[in-house]
C-alpha cells in the first residue's frame, strides 16, 4: 500500500509571533521535524504552505513536494483540500506542523481501525482531532465544495463524509499521554512540548 504524508503549515502563526514552521524544536525546525516524522511511515511527503514560505529556509531543500493553497488564509480546510488534490495515492496521513510530538504509530493505528471510512480521526477529550488523521484522497472534492459554499471548518468535512471516530483510549498503549495531539500555538506551548519530549526521553 502506497501512502502519502501531508503536512499543513500555511497558517499565519499570529499567536506564535513568527512563522511557526521555522521555529526551532529539539535541534530541528517544526517543519523539518514534521516532514521527517511523517516520512517514516509514508512513501511521499507533500507540504501545504503559503507561497512566501516555500521561497525561504527552512523549506528550501526539504525532502518533500510543496504545494500552495489556491486562496490563502482560508484555514486548514483549504490546506487539506490542496494537499489531498495534489496526492497521487488513495491513502493519506495528514498532520499539522505545530504538533511536534506526533508518533507515526498513532497514524498507522488509525489506518488499521478505519474500516471503510473516508476519514479516520481520534477523539481526545471529547473532540475529534482532524489534523492528526487519515484521509482518502477523494474527499478533496467535498472539501472544495464546502469551501465554495463559504464553509471553512474542517469539522464540516468530517460531517459530510463517512468518518470513523476512534476513542483515544485505543491509542494509549502506543501513546500513553496522547502527546501526539498536543498542538503548539504559542512560544510557551512550544517550550512545554520540548520539555515534555526531554522528560519522556529520560524515562
Write down the overall geometry: globular
Radius of gyration: 16 Å
Number of strands: 9
Give the biggest sheet: 7 strands, mixed
Order of helices and strands: EEEHEHEHEHEEHHEH
- Total helical elements: 7
User: What does the average pLDDT come to?
Assistant: 93
In the CATH scheme, the class would be Alpha Beta
Looking at CATH, the homologous superfamily is: Spore Coat Polysaccharide Biosynthesis Protein SpsA, Chain A
Helix fraction, binned, reads 25-40%
**CATH fold descriptor:** Spore Coat Polysaccharide Biosynthesis Protein SpsA, Chain A
Strand order in the sheet with the most strands? 5-4-1-6-8-7-9
Domain count: 1
Give me the secondary-structure category: alpha/beta
The CATH architecture classification is Alpha-Beta Complex
* Uncertain residue segments: none
**Range of strand content:** 15-25%
Q: Your description of this structure?
A:
The protein contains seven helices and nine strands; from the N terminus they run βββαβαβαβαββααβα. It has helices at residues 30-39, 51-54, 76-86, 104-112, 139-148, 154-160, 187-202; strands spanning 3-8, 24-25, 28-29, 44-49, 65-68, 91-96, 119-124, 127-136, 163-167. It has a seven-stranded mixed sheet with strand order 5-4-1-6-8-7-9, with helices on both faces. A two-stranded antiparallel sheet has the order 2-3. The mean pLDDT is 93.
